[in-house]
């Protein structure tokens, strides 16, 4: 495919995923880029070394392998530039460090990824940054929370474990009127189903550990910025010296090739199971944005092109004293769903969501929240496994 420059503008998503990121003819026609391992890079002369006037200068500043993945992510995100970092959490923390300083105020959605809250409540506060959490349903009402020193609005849609949607365009418009940077953790949807920069977001964050990898064996994060904020993001990353490894970048680039097809299967299977659970006895509610019954379904329908394979349901329990016992009985009876953190891989996973850190978007009162990552297994087998869980929970 020699005419790769025109491909992203005209082709379908699976065609783009197959070809973006590198030109085989840059590498003698080999369809995958070489894995370039590097720390030291040599310069042809002292003047070039002094001015650093060549493309590659040191391993932390990129290699052809990491650049191939960054180029692919930029093509998907519509971004001016992308950095690679060793984990999804690092992809969140670096922009916080890069765009805030002592004395600043930042707004963070209350349905945030747990480790992000831990970072905000510990390290960020120790650095003199004031963190305020807000209701994920606030929309344009976030204007009332702004102060003269508000520098960042951090969003995540849908929210972790309970999947609240956010009105990203409305929030972004308010934030920009006040001169604040809008960041979004977009791991759930990936750029295939939602492109944050098209909706007013400045910094798009993604745990490539999840769907881009797809095989539960790589840790990597990507952070993509629009043109206005790219240079500052790049400078912050360079100052911190945090970078993704070329072997991991190669594996993520390979995972991207099949991500569209895998996401279709995750979407279809998870929605099938979510609809089935809605009508099942013993389920208080199903927390899936693609369900018409979900409170913020209209935002999902307006802004998103699809849904991924992770959602939650509330296991009905008559008293809080039985929440943990029923949840553990359900989980321990599962044979196909593994009990594990993370998601986005080929295998199905389940866990009992801990929502004790919520300040505004409190945990549901009807029962424990069970989060399901629906993998690539046959749906009939997954439903049978869930039935085993219900049988065990009902015995408690």
UniProtKB/TrEMBL annotation:
Highest taxon of the lineage: Bacteria
Keywords: Lyase, Pyridoxal phosphate
Keyword Lyase recorded: yes
Keyword Lipid biosynthesis attached: no
GO molecular function (one): lyase activity
Enzyme type, top EC level: lyase
Reactions mediated catalytically: L,L-cystathionine + H2O = L-homocysteine + pyruvate + NH4(+)
Cofactors, names only: pyridoxal 5'-phosphate
N-terminal signal peptide: none
Pfam families: Cys_Met_Meta_PP
The protein's Enzyme Commission number: 4.4.1.8
Similarity comment: Belongs to the trans-sulfuration enzymes family.
PANTHER family: CYSTATHIONINE BETA-LYASE-RELATED
Name this polypeptide is given: Cystathionine beta-lyase
Originating organism: Rhizobium bangladeshense
